[in-house]
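Retro notes (design track)

What went well: tokenization of the new backbones is finally stable.
What didn't: we kept losing track of which sequence belonged to which structure.
Fix going forward: every design gets posted as structure first, then sequence, in one message. First example under the new rule, 76 residues:
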């Protein structure tokens, strides 16, 4: 393969701000992005350490934070 991780690739990442949160059927937190997609924001240390997502206060602090939306990336 000759496809190095270049700056061009990074430019294609789509970042979307968080506009809300909800829990999925399994009780995992999902960030709602402005594009209409959802993205899991699990707290599963050591893989995903997001203790802030467990508290209302923490989630409010992360409102408006941008996440890379993988679904938007795929749609490009
Ligand atoms: Zn999206």
């Amino acid at each position: 393969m000759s496809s190095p991780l270049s700056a061009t690739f990074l430019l294609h990442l789509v970042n979307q701000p968080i506009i809300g949160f909800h829990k999925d059927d399994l009780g995992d937190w999902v960030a709602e992005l402005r594009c209409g997609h959802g993205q899991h924001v699990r707290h599963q240390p050591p893989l995903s350490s997001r203790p802030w997502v467990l508290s209302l206060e923490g989630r409010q602090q992360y409102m408006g934070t941008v996440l890379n939306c993988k679904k938007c990336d795929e749609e490009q």
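Added context from the reviewer: Residues 56-62 form the longest helix (7 residues).
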